[in-house]
Amino acid sequence: MPATVPVGCVKSQPDLPSRQQPTQTTTTTNSDARARTRRGLVERDTEFTRLGSRLRSIRESRHLTLATVSEASGISISTLSRLESGSRRPHLDLLLPLARVYRLTLDDLVDAPALGDPRIRPRPRVREGVVTVPLSGGDGPWEAFKQVHPPAPDADIRQWVHQGWDWIYVISGRMRLLLADDDLMVEAGAAVEFDTRVPHGFSNPGPGVLEVLCLFNAAGARLHTRAVGEDDRLVSG
After folding, report:
1. Which of 81, 131, 144, 189 is deepest in the core (most CB within 10 A)?
2. Sign of the torsion formed by the C-alpha atoms of 197, 229, 1 and 174
């Protein structure tokens, strides 16, 4: 009889050998840090110069002098000149008055890139009666999807192993989870979280439809890479 999991979260992690991290000398570390700092300063100066040129172009396109903009914005002429030359950090308290003077949004003033449409338009797919609905764009560090499983009380549960972590929340129905040697029954409203290097698999024991919400990281997004019990052969998920 499978053990019942109460509403909450189950965590499991195998006892795996720790990986010894390679050592680096202090000299190499300091050199890398200085190189990163130099790259950051160059990128910053380039961005300041680009923004300064844009501010100058906006002012000149409106046939305004530095003195006119200074009087309208309350920003000194010397500060405006340094902003346009890229030698002054463009703080928000300087950009907001300029946006009002030029009657532009802040995004238009600094030529911020468009964010694009954040809405996800999932395309459900069906495989062996299981409906999978992707809920993320696939570009981030985590993938999200919803699955709907029909009742399959007699189905054999195949266990898988792959890198990463899985997080599963049961929206409705019941989920039978095999996690290594543990046989668990997860009820609606409960969540489980586990290292996917542990052999795992789940099914819907019925009697109703099982709906789950799943999250996995970039490694887990590659899905199943090694089947348990098949001579450790690599298989595609």
Report:
1. 144
2. positive
